[in-house]
Amino acid sequence: MLDLYARRHWYNTMFDINKGVEMTPLLFNKTHDRLKEEIRLDQRILIDHFVSEASE
Question: What is the dihedral sign for C-alpha 41, 44, 50, 54?
């Protein structure tokens, strides 16, 4: 799953660069931050699911 997220964000960044967005460290940091946020959301979903299963 993580590889799919990373690939999608990388392709989106490359698409932006091809459209003419300036290639800066900020652009790549933004890509990294989006990937980290997606991972956090998945972790939260898994934890919530585990907690709800344990409380039943």
Answer: negative
Distance (Å, rounded) from C-alpha 28 to C-alpha 13? 8
Would you state the structure tokens that stand for residue 49, as one six-digit string?
């699911």
Cα pseudo-dihedral 17, 18, 19, 23, rounded to 10: 20
Could you read off the pLDDT tens digit of each residue along the chain, which spans 56 residues? Answer: 668 888 998 999 999 999 999 999 999 999 999 989 998 999 999 999 988 888 87
Cβ(8)–Cβ(49) below 8 Å:
no
Fill in the DSSP letter of residue 11: H
Q: Which two tokens stand for residue 53?
A: 């299963």
